[in-house]
Amino acid sequence: MKELPDAELVIRARSGDGAAFGELVGRYRRAVYSVALAVTGRHQDAEDATQESFMVALQRLEECRSPARFAGWLLAIARNRSRNLIRRESLRRGDEIPASASSPGPGPERAADISVLRGRLTEALNTLSEVQREITLLHDLEGWKHAEIAEKLGMPAGTVRSHLHFARKALRVRLAEWKDYGKGG
Amino acid sequence: MKTEEQDRAALRGASPDRNRNGEPADGLRRLLAVMDPEHDRPGYWDDLRAGVVERASFELARRRRMARESVAAVLSGWSRSLIPVAAAAAAVAAFLVAGEVRRAANAAPPLLLEDVLAGEVGDGPFQAALSGRAPANPVAFMARVEGNAP
């Protein structure tokens, strides 16, 4: 299964092949999560959106007109499901989507707790635009290269490179406010 | 599982970690790795995959059933439509052939002038021609002799 191209896996999954669908999930779970996290900004929401995206994709597999471009189609679903999810959450909670920035807090020496660290990173990521967050997470979390991101998101490689450059620069500036970060960046 | 000290080391850029492409990860990438749920929950991605596939089991089973049914439906659809059409075509063909045979059997062979001149002709036409019912018109006479008279 691992050697099969996406198109073949999609065709098999359409016929109910669980192994083929499982391979697609394994292949794109991190990318879908990255996109969902870029949109929602919260782990729990990103996880829910990831699961929901794969379920929706399976139900709508016939709508994937180019099985070879399954990844881009799946990521578009993930983006839409994530947006719907935060819209629903906002309506339910009656509050706003998480704010983009906040005042600098304690440095990383005191932010030993992973959740605190994640909170800081989320704050920093939220200073970026959605597309910048998406590209940054796909690049740094999922490990995709520029060309791969460009192909999957359907945008020129130069645009991806540019987004990534400015996003990483903004993140560095933001994170440099933290004590000790500057030694590593 | 990574320790907090490793996290701090990642923040300082002191970790020798490499990214998923095997390239040395820079400080920012190492820092963002903390956003990976598997960072503190080993097996997270495998669990997520298993959970998704399990949730999808009903839909996958439905698809398998549909695929089986569609193959059977195609085959039975063919037989359902082909057999009556073939039977009807055979019946029509049989009816046409039978009619043709019946017509061929009933039809008297036409008597041509050439046959009259070259071959032996029975008494019937001549007797009819010689009888008082014979038409005076030579064309009508020949038509009658040839068997084309109305």
Q: Keywords for this structure?
A:
heterodimer, A: 185 residues, mainly alpha, 8 helices, 68% helix, B: 150 residues, 7 helices, 67% helix, rod-shaped
At a glance:
The complex is a heterodimer of chains A (185) and B (150). Chain A is built from eight helices and no strands.
Assembly annotation:
heterodimer
Helix share bin of chain A: 55-70%
SSE arrangement of chain A, N to C: HHHHHHHH
The number of helices of chain B is 7
- Taken as a percent bin, the fraction of beta residues of chain B is under 5%
* Helix-residue proportion of chain B: 55-70%
Mean pLDDT across all residues of chain A, rounded?
Answer: 84
Sketch the major β-sheet of chain A. none
Q: How much is the average pLDDT of chain B?
A: 73
Q: Note the run of SSEs of chain B as H and E.
A: HHHHHHH
What's the helix count of chain A? 8
Largest sheet of chain B: none
Radius of gyration of chain A: 18 Å
> Quick one: which chains have the greatest interface?
A-B, 48 and 43 residues
- DSSP strand count of chain B: 0
Structural class of chain B: mainly alpha
Shape of chain A: globular
